[in-house]
Design a protein that fits this description.
The protein is of the alpha/beta class. It has one domain: Class I glutamine amidotransferase (GATase) domain (Rossmann fold). 22% of the residues lie in helices and 33% in strands. The chain is built from five helices and 14 strands. The strands form three sheets. The chain has an eight-stranded mixed β-sheet, with helices on both faces. A four-stranded mixed β-sheet has the order 6-5-7-11, with helices on one face. The chain has a two-stranded antiparallel sheet with strand order 8-10.
Length: 201
């Protein structure tokens, strides 16, 4: 069973519908106890880092996320769900994250004519191979909406990069953990292929 973490932030239903369209059952869970038996877990998210980490902790969902990943089960973070995995975010202050992936979350640097947030379609450049990207072209276009991006302490976790005035990390892979800055559920055929790859792990 694929379980989608509902901590009050994120386009949960669109992620669930994408899996259902592919023929996979995905359940939205808003209680920590419901996450314990997940075969695969998805952490989506849209909004402010501070509010998201507060709600995860308030609903006692941080521990099941840690336990799932430590058990070696497939895990997928999406957008804010990627950023929450890191040590610290500097979005409107300084906020501790889940600390599962070493590194930080920082804002795009202001540049003339550079629109922030980075919103719309952009291409990927793969930095490594992972089953999540099987069958996806190396210059595939995907859909982004974000003002902050992750800066891992160890580049070996970087799966793909993109560029918006500067190179930034678009996806990571670390053993059974995968996460994307872009939204697979909004990325049409490429995104559906990625979600299908994840569900088939």
């Amino acid at each position: 069973m694929i379980k989608i973490v509902d901590y009050g932030m994120g386009n949960l239903r669109s992620v669930q519908k994408a899996f259902e369209k592919l023929g996979f059952v995905a359940e939205i869970c808003n209680r920590a106890t419901d996450l314990a038996d997940a075969d695969k877990m998805v952490l989506p998210g849209v909004g402010a880092f501070r509010d998201a980490i507060h709600d995860l902790q308030r609903q006692d969902m941080a521990r099941p996320i840690h336990d799932h990943i430590e058990a070696g089960k497939p895990f997928l973070g999406i957008c804010l769900g990627l950023q929450l995995l890191f040590d610290v975010s500097y979005e409107d202050g300084q906020w501790d994250g889940l600390g599962i992936v070493r590194g930080k979350v920082i804002r795009f640097e202001d540049q003339p004519d550079l629109k922030i947030p980075h919103m719309g379609w952009n291409s990927l450049s793969f930095a490594s191979d992972a089953p999540l990207m099987n069958g996806i072209p190396h210059d595939a276009y995907v859909y982004f909406v974000h003002s902050y991006y992750v800066a891992p302490a160890d580049d070996s976790v970087v799966l793909a990069r993109s560029n918006h005035g500067q190179d930034f990390v678009a996806a990571i892979a670390q053993d059974n953990l995968f996460a994307t800055q872009f939204h697979p559920e909004k990325s049409q055929r490429v995104g559906m292929k990625l979600l299908s790859n994840f569900a088939a792990l």
